[in-house]
Amino acid sequence: MAATPMLPPNLGPGNANFDGNAAAAPPTPGTDMTGICFRDQLWLNTYPLDRNLVFDYFALSPFYDYTCNNEQLRMRSIHPLDTSHLSKMTGIEFMVSEIMEPHLFVMRKQKRDGPEKVTPMLTYYVLDGSIYQAPQLCNVFAARVGRALYHISKAFTTAASKLEKVGYVDPENEGVSLEPKAAKEAIDFKEVKRVDHILASLQRKLPPAPQPPPFPEGYAPPTTTEGEQAPEAEQADPKLPLVDPILDQGPSKRLKYA
């Protein structure tokens, strides 16, 4: 069933341009209209918002372009979303890309250059009766990068303000006596206990150490202990007396002259 054609706002009855004078063309919607939304509660209370009437509701919003191919089909009493007619035309058109009745409808504005050649331009969505323009991907990336840079810069500023300046003397406060070193290096025992408590709780959560692997078959561990081996080592290798290589060489030998 074809939808009833709806005239643009400036072509309705009672308009001064409708009688005799040339009608002024409706303004073309801008590229970036993400800061506004449209909602007609009277229309929503009168008609159901479904896939057959969602385009008529979208045509009431400032996002609609009256120069599109869908408007030409509406003037010919043809459903504006009839793909059999839209595929034979070229120019700007609107298509419903996703539908989740009755809450979400996604409208895509695209430029058609042929039956199979279309170029997406903008995306709009109808969420619970309110129409919005989806932001472009480049704007989303720019906003996310700008927000990340702001937080990184703020983090560096905070870290720099808390770092202790080593070896720096303020010329204005050069004569002011510095705090004693003992006061600066005072230990906070509450903090130490808190850290010990955290480490102990983490240690309790860890699984116990695994048992060592068994000895291979045929292996016999030695029966002697270190205490038994120590006397034998002392008997086998008795300590030699310390001898000075220079002083303990015996009487010096002098040459005898004939």
From TrEMBL:
It is found in: Nucleus. GO terms for biological process: regulation of transcription by RNA polymerase II. GO terms for molecular function: transcription coregulator activity. InterPro entries: Mediator_Med6, Mediator_Med6_sf. It comes from the Eukaryota. Residues 1-11, 207-216 have a biased composition (Pro residues). Keywords: Activator, Nucleus, Transcription, Transcription regulation. GO terms for cellular component: mediator complex. Residues 1-25, 204-258 are annotated as: Disordered. Pfam families: Med6. Residues 12-25 have a biased composition (Low complexity). Component of the Mediator complex. Component of the Mediator complex, a coactivator involved in the regulated transcription of nearly all RNA polymerase II-dependent genes. Mediator functions as a bridge to convey information from gene-specific regulatory proteins to the basal RNA polymerase II transcription machinery. Mediator is recruited to promoters by direct interactions with regulatory proteins and serves as a scaffold for the assembly of a functional preinitiation complex with RNA polymerase II and the general transcription factors. Belongs to the Mediator complex subunit 6 family. This is Mediator of RNA polymerase II transcription subunit 6. The gene is MED6.
